[in-house]
Amino acid sequence: MGLQPRYRRSFGCVTWMYMGMLVFLAANFFLALPFRYVGAGEVYGYLPPRLAFLGTALLLPGMALAAVLGARTFRTPRRRGTRVGTGVGALIGWSGFFTVCWLAAAFGLDRRDQIFQTVVFPDLGGSLAFYTFVPLTLAATALVVYALYARGVDFERRRRLTLIGAALAVLAGVAILATDFDPLGVAGLLISTVSGALGGYVSGAGYARAGGDDMIPPGAEIRRREPRRKPR
Protein backbone atom coordinates (compact mmCIF):
# COMPACT_ATOMS: atom_id res chain seq x y z
CA MET A 1 0.00 0.00 0.00
CA GLY A 2 1.52 3.32 -1.12
CA LEU A 3 1.38 6.75 0.38
CA GLN A 4 -1.86 8.68 0.32
CA PRO A 5 -1.99 11.20 -2.55
CA ARG A 6 -1.76 14.23 -0.25
CA TYR A 7 1.37 12.86 1.38
CA ARG A 8 2.89 12.15 -2.03
CA ARG A 9 2.12 15.76 -2.93
CA SER A 10 3.66 16.96 0.33
CA PHE A 11 6.85 15.04 -0.38
CA GLY A 12 6.89 16.34 -3.94
CA CYS A 13 6.55 19.95 -2.80
CA VAL A 14 9.49 19.51 -0.42
CA THR A 15 11.58 18.06 -3.25
CA TRP A 16 10.76 20.91 -5.62
CA MET A 17 11.39 23.50 -2.92
CA TYR A 18 14.83 21.99 -2.43
CA MET A 19 15.45 22.11 -6.19
CA GLY A 20 14.33 25.75 -6.25
CA MET A 21 16.83 26.53 -3.49
CA LEU A 22 19.62 24.92 -5.53
CA VAL A 23 18.64 27.06 -8.51
CA PHE A 24 18.67 30.16 -6.27
CA LEU A 25 22.20 29.40 -5.06
CA ALA A 26 23.50 28.55 -8.54
CA ALA A 27 21.88 31.60 -10.13
CA ASN A 28 23.31 34.11 -7.66
CA PHE A 29 26.78 32.62 -8.14
CA PHE A 30 26.69 32.82 -11.93
CA LEU A 31 25.06 36.26 -11.96
CA ALA A 32 27.74 37.59 -9.62
CA LEU A 33 30.62 35.91 -11.47
CA PRO A 34 30.93 38.47 -14.33
CA PHE A 35 31.51 41.26 -11.78
CA ARG A 36 34.84 39.61 -10.98
CA TYR A 37 36.11 40.43 -14.46
CA VAL A 38 34.71 43.94 -14.94
CA GLY A 39 36.43 45.71 -12.08
CA ALA A 40 33.72 45.09 -9.46
CA GLY A 41 35.16 42.06 -7.70
CA GLU A 42 33.64 43.11 -4.38
CA VAL A 43 30.20 42.00 -5.59
CA TYR A 44 31.50 38.53 -6.42
CA GLY A 45 33.50 38.45 -3.19
CA TYR A 46 30.68 39.18 -0.77
CA LEU A 47 27.40 38.16 -2.41
CA PRO A 48 27.50 34.37 -3.03
CA PRO A 49 28.71 33.53 0.50
CA ARG A 50 26.13 35.88 2.03
CA LEU A 51 23.27 34.41 -0.02
CA ALA A 52 24.52 30.91 0.77
CA PHE A 53 24.13 31.86 4.43
CA LEU A 54 20.59 33.04 3.67
CA GLY A 55 19.75 29.85 1.77
CA THR A 56 21.08 27.65 4.58
CA ALA A 57 19.02 29.57 7.14
CA LEU A 58 15.85 29.21 5.05
CA LEU A 59 16.29 25.57 4.02
CA LEU A 60 14.79 23.72 6.98
CA PRO A 61 11.90 26.16 7.60
CA GLY A 62 11.23 26.15 3.86
CA MET A 63 11.06 22.35 3.75
CA ALA A 64 8.62 22.29 6.66
CA LEU A 65 6.42 24.97 5.09
CA ALA A 66 6.51 23.20 1.71
CA ALA A 67 5.45 19.92 3.34
CA VAL A 68 2.48 21.56 5.06
CA LEU A 69 1.52 23.46 1.91
CA GLY A 70 1.61 20.30 -0.19
CA ALA A 71 -0.56 18.40 2.29
CA ARG A 72 -3.17 21.19 2.40
CA THR A 73 -3.53 22.01 -1.28
CA PHE A 74 -4.38 20.50 -4.65
CA ARG A 75 -2.58 20.90 -7.93
CA THR A 76 -2.92 24.12 -9.87
CA PRO A 77 -2.44 25.01 -13.55
CA ARG A 78 1.23 25.22 -14.47
CA ARG A 79 1.04 28.85 -15.60
CA ARG A 80 -0.48 29.96 -12.30
CA GLY A 81 1.96 27.89 -10.29
CA THR A 82 5.02 29.30 -12.02
CA ARG A 83 3.74 32.89 -11.87
CA VAL A 84 3.01 32.67 -8.15
CA GLY A 85 6.27 30.86 -7.52
CA THR A 86 8.25 33.48 -9.42
CA GLY A 87 6.60 36.30 -7.50
CA VAL A 88 7.04 34.71 -4.09
CA GLY A 89 10.63 33.75 -4.94
CA ALA A 90 11.46 37.30 -5.99
CA LEU A 91 9.92 38.58 -2.78
CA ILE A 92 12.03 36.16 -0.72
CA GLY A 93 15.16 37.24 -2.61
CA TRP A 94 14.33 40.92 -2.03
CA SER A 95 13.41 40.71 1.64
CA GLY A 96 15.99 38.04 2.40
CA PHE A 97 18.84 40.24 1.15
CA PHE A 98 17.70 43.20 3.21
CA THR A 99 17.21 40.94 6.24
CA VAL A 100 20.80 39.76 6.07
CA CYS A 101 21.96 43.37 5.77
CA TRP A 102 19.77 44.37 8.72
CA LEU A 103 21.18 41.56 10.86
CA ALA A 104 24.73 42.58 9.97
CA ALA A 105 24.00 46.17 11.05
CA ALA A 106 22.11 45.18 14.19
CA PHE A 107 24.65 42.71 15.55
CA GLY A 108 27.90 44.03 14.10
CA LEU A 109 28.50 40.86 12.11
CA ASP A 110 31.19 42.58 10.02
CA ARG A 111 33.42 42.34 13.09
CA ARG A 112 32.58 38.71 13.80
CA ASP A 113 32.46 36.78 10.53
CA GLN A 114 34.46 36.96 7.32
CA ILE A 115 31.26 36.61 5.25
CA PHE A 116 30.15 40.05 6.43
CA GLN A 117 33.46 41.90 6.16
CA THR A 118 32.20 43.80 3.11
CA VAL A 119 29.76 46.31 4.57
CA VAL A 120 26.77 47.42 2.50
CA PHE A 121 24.39 50.18 3.60
CA PRO A 122 26.93 51.31 6.24
CA ASP A 123 24.73 54.12 7.58
CA LEU A 124 21.63 51.96 8.07
CA GLY A 125 22.00 51.42 11.82
CA GLY A 126 19.95 53.78 13.99
CA SER A 127 17.91 55.21 11.11
CA LEU A 128 14.13 55.27 10.80
CA ALA A 129 14.36 52.66 8.03
CA PHE A 130 16.31 50.42 10.41
CA TYR A 131 13.55 50.46 13.02
CA THR A 132 10.63 50.13 10.60
CA PHE A 133 12.15 47.30 8.59
CA VAL A 134 11.29 44.50 11.01
CA PRO A 135 7.58 45.30 11.59
CA LEU A 136 6.99 45.94 7.87
CA THR A 137 8.73 42.71 6.87
CA LEU A 138 6.92 40.65 9.51
CA ALA A 139 3.56 42.07 8.39
CA ALA A 140 4.41 41.30 4.76
CA THR A 141 5.44 37.75 5.66
CA ALA A 142 2.26 37.16 7.65
CA LEU A 143 0.06 38.33 4.78
CA VAL A 144 1.83 36.18 2.18
CA VAL A 145 1.83 33.09 4.41
CA TYR A 146 -1.86 33.56 5.17
CA ALA A 147 -2.61 33.95 1.46
CA LEU A 148 -0.80 30.70 0.69
CA TYR A 149 -2.12 28.56 3.54
CA ALA A 150 -5.63 29.79 4.33
CA ARG A 151 -8.46 27.46 3.45
CA GLY A 152 -11.77 28.62 2.04
CA VAL A 153 -10.23 31.70 0.42
CA ASP A 154 -10.68 32.27 -3.31
CA PHE A 155 -7.79 33.05 -5.62
CA GLU A 156 -8.62 36.73 -6.05
CA ARG A 157 -8.51 37.37 -2.32
CA ARG A 158 -5.24 35.44 -2.06
CA ARG A 159 -3.82 37.57 -4.84
CA ARG A 160 -4.85 40.81 -3.12
CA LEU A 161 -3.34 39.74 0.18
CA THR A 162 -0.11 38.74 -1.55
CA LEU A 163 0.08 42.07 -3.38
CA ILE A 164 -0.43 43.98 -0.13
CA GLY A 165 2.30 41.92 1.53
CA ALA A 166 4.60 42.50 -1.44
CA ALA A 167 3.93 46.25 -1.26
CA LEU A 168 4.92 46.31 2.43
CA ALA A 169 8.11 44.36 1.71
CA VAL A 170 9.01 46.69 -1.16
CA LEU A 171 8.31 49.71 1.06
CA ALA A 172 10.65 48.37 3.75
CA GLY A 173 13.41 47.87 1.19
CA VAL A 174 12.92 51.18 -0.58
CA ALA A 175 13.13 52.96 2.78
CA ILE A 176 16.59 51.44 3.28
CA LEU A 177 17.67 52.46 -0.22
CA ALA A 178 16.41 55.99 0.32
CA THR A 179 18.18 56.24 3.67
CA ASP A 180 21.55 54.87 2.59
CA PHE A 181 21.89 54.35 -1.15
CA ASP A 182 24.80 52.02 -1.84
CA PRO A 183 25.61 50.86 -5.42
CA LEU A 184 27.29 47.74 -4.06
CA GLY A 185 24.18 46.88 -2.10
CA VAL A 186 21.90 47.62 -5.07
CA ALA A 187 23.87 45.21 -7.25
CA GLY A 188 23.54 42.51 -4.62
CA LEU A 189 19.85 43.24 -4.19
CA LEU A 190 19.13 42.89 -7.92
CA ILE A 191 21.05 39.62 -8.15
CA SER A 192 19.32 38.24 -5.05
CA THR A 193 15.87 39.20 -6.35
CA VAL A 194 16.44 37.72 -9.82
CA SER A 195 17.92 34.54 -8.31
CA GLY A 196 14.94 34.22 -6.00
CA ALA A 197 12.57 34.62 -8.95
CA LEU A 198 14.35 31.86 -10.88
CA GLY A 199 14.28 29.53 -7.89
CA GLY A 200 10.64 30.36 -7.27
CA TYR A 201 9.79 29.55 -10.90
CA VAL A 202 11.25 26.06 -10.47
CA SER A 203 9.47 25.50 -7.16
CA GLY A 204 6.21 26.82 -8.63
CA ALA A 205 6.46 24.41 -11.55
CA GLY A 206 6.87 21.57 -9.08
CA TYR A 207 3.99 22.81 -6.95
CA ALA A 208 1.77 22.68 -10.04
CA ARG A 209 2.53 19.04 -10.76
CA ALA A 210 3.31 17.42 -7.39
CA GLY A 211 0.95 14.64 -6.37
CA GLY A 212 0.00 13.43 -9.83
CA ASP A 213 -3.50 12.98 -11.19
CA ASP A 214 -4.94 12.04 -7.80
CA MET A 215 -4.45 15.62 -6.61
CA ILE A 216 -6.26 17.37 -9.45
CA PRO A 217 -9.21 19.26 -7.92
CA PRO A 218 -12.71 18.71 -9.34
CA GLY A 219 -13.44 20.92 -12.32
CA ALA A 220 -9.82 21.99 -12.82
CA GLU A 221 -8.55 22.51 -16.36
CA ILE A 222 -5.52 20.27 -15.87
CA ARG A 223 -4.84 17.52 -18.36
CA ARG A 224 -4.39 14.10 -16.85
CA ARG A 225 -1.44 12.04 -17.86
CA GLU A 226 -2.16 9.60 -20.62
CA PRO A 227 -1.43 5.99 -19.69
CA ARG A 228 1.71 4.58 -21.17
CA ARG A 229 1.22 2.27 -24.07
CA LYS A 230 2.46 -1.22 -23.47
CA PRO A 231 5.11 -2.34 -25.95
CA ARG A 232 3.92 -4.95 -28.41
Give an account of the 3D structure.
The chain is mainly α. The chain has one domain. It has six helices and no strands. The chain has helices at residues 5-32, 41-72, 78-107, 128-149, 155-179, 183-209. The model has no long low-confidence stretch (mean pLDDT 90).
Number of strands: 0
Q: Which regions have little confidence, pLDDT < 50, spanning 5+ residues? A: none
The share of residues in extended strands comes to under 5%
Distance from N terminus to C terminus (CA atoms, Å) equals 29 Å
List keywords for this structure.
232 residues; 71% helix; mainly alpha; single chain
Short description:
With 232 residues, this protein is mostly helical. The protein is built from 6 helices and no strands. The protein has one domain.
Topology (SSEs and partners):
Elements: H1 5-32, H2 41-72, H3 78-107, H4 128-149, H5 155-179, H6 183-209
Helix pairs in contact: 1-2, 1-6, 2-6, 3-4, 3-5, 3-6, 4-5
